[in-house]
Structures are given as structure tokens and as C-alpha cells.
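Chain particulars:
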Amino acid sequence: MTIARVADNRRLLEDRTRMGLCIEAAYEIDEWAYKLAEAAASIEEPCGLRYTLRGMGDRLHTLATAVMAGIDDEMVTTGDLRRIVLVEMPTPTQTPQLAKSEDRR
């Protein structure tokens, strides 16, 4: 990455309006994740729809967490984010810093 590119990225992260919109988007994605998990839990009979909703909710939560980590967690590397967003499995020597999921509400 060039020095100019790093400076451009820093400038983007310093834009409060842009950051606010990214945070709002991550929050909305996470809320959809919880709603899908709630909908899945309300289906009493184990079935494909229940598992699909639960999986979609978990994936949305993971993506929202990745967005927030990408914005403000210097310990999470670009490689960690790439593995999470692109669903790349880490090799045994790679341990992503970003937790898979947090306790649900």
C-alpha cells in the first residue's frame, strides 16, 4: 500500500459523517441478525427454514462485527477481515483476532 493510499484511508476514517453512517449500517445489519435469530427461535419444529434463518442471522451478525472491527480495532488485521468476510478458513497457524460472535442479547 502506498503512503498516499494510507493517507487517503486515514482521511476517510476521520470523516465523522462517513464513520457515523458506517456505524449506523453495522448497527442495522446487527439488528436484522437478531430479528432473524428470534424468528428462527419462534419456529418450534426443526426444519430447513429455521436453520436457514438462524444461519442468515449468524452471518449478518458476523458481518456487522467485521465492519465495526474494520473501522476501529487495530488488532484485527486485513487478513483477519478477509477470512471473515470472504469465508476463508484459516490455516492452523492463523488465529483471527475477531471473535466469531458475542453473547446474544
Observations:
- Residues 18-105 form one domain.
- The CA atoms of residues 80 and 93 lie 12 Å apart.
- The chain has one domain: 18-105.
- The mean pLDDT is 79.
